[in-house]
Specification:
The complex is a heterodimer. Chain A is an alpha/beta fold. Helix content of chain A is 44%, strand content 13%. A three-stranded parallel sheet of chain A has the order 1-2-3. Chain B is built from four helices and five strands, in the order βααββααββ. Chain B has one domain: Histidine kinase-like ATPase, C-terminal domain (Heat Shock Protein 90), CATH 3.30.565.10. Classes of the chains: A alpha/beta, B alpha+beta.
């Protein structure tokens, strides 16, 4: 489990290394606030700027609710399991402005 | 009434982001003393208070204010009320409510600014009093 700064760094590295499809597993996440949500939005932005896509694994209703409050579930695919995320189709994406 | 004595806890923290987790722990522990507030509501309180405290700390950092941020947590009659106070330059709370639709391209350019929406959604009641001398965020939680 990592915090938001570590997540940002990891995503930047993965995208720089050529990753275009990323699944972030939040299964063990105990707490998320807007700082963590911002890191996820940043990950989505970096991937879509390069034609990539992001999916989340978030079985916790409590954590998922925070994403829903910010309407992020409308732009990021949220799944209950890794298998579900791996077999999913990407969400329709809007163009990205930097 | 829950049968547990009412109490108020007040803490002051330096305006540093690493103190947010301390506030979360203290306020959640104070709320858990009230058996009428079930764990999911305490979780909501943790998130909302974290957002308010983060905003207060950021207000001090942006304005160069080194004075402490104050957090008050009052348990009374089965309710938990939290006030987070800062001495930052204030902001237009009404303008912050104009959320950017998530599907628009500009939304992905904003990695912050979700805190107030989260606070308002999770608290049973919330209000923000903001002016040039500071901001007070009032949050109230109770068991439905």
């Amino acid at each position: 489990m990592v915090g938001a700064p570590e997540l940002r760094q990891a995503v930047v590295k993965e995208v720089a290394d050529g990753c275009r499809g990323l699944i972030i597993d939040l299964s063990e996440l105990d707490f998320v606030d807007s700082f963590g949500m911002g890191a996820v939005v940043g990950a989505l932005k970096r991937l879509r700027q390069r034609g990539g896509e992001l999916a989340l694994v978030c079985p916790s209703r409590r954590i998922r609710r925070v994403f829903e409050i910010c309407d992020l579930d409308r732009i990021i695919a949220v799944h209950d399991s890794i298998d579900g995320a791996a077999g999913s189709r990407p969400m329709p994406s809007a163009p990205v402005t930097s | 009434m829950s049968g547990v004595a009412d109490h108020t806890i007040e803490i002051e923290i330096p305006p540093r982001p690493d103190y947010v987790s301390l506030v979360r722990v203290v306020v959640a522990a104070a709320a858990e003393l009230d058996p009428s507030l079930e764990p999911p509501r305490v979780d909501d309180l943790r998130v909302a208070v974290s957002e308010a405290t983060t905003n207060a700390i950021q207000a001090h950092i942006r304005s160069g204010c080194s004075r402490p941020v104050r957090v008050s947590c009052q348990r009374s009659g089965g309710r938990v009320s939290v006030v987070v106070s800062d001495e930052g330059p204030g902001f237009d709370a009404g303008a912050r409510l104009q959320a950017t639709p998530p599907e628009t391209p500009v939304r992905l350019g904003r990695e912050s600014g979700m805190g107030i929406s989260i606070m308002r959604a999770l608290a049973d009641e919330s209000s923000i009093d903001s002016g040039p001398k500071g901001t007070e965020v009032h949050l109230r939680f109770e068991q439905p």
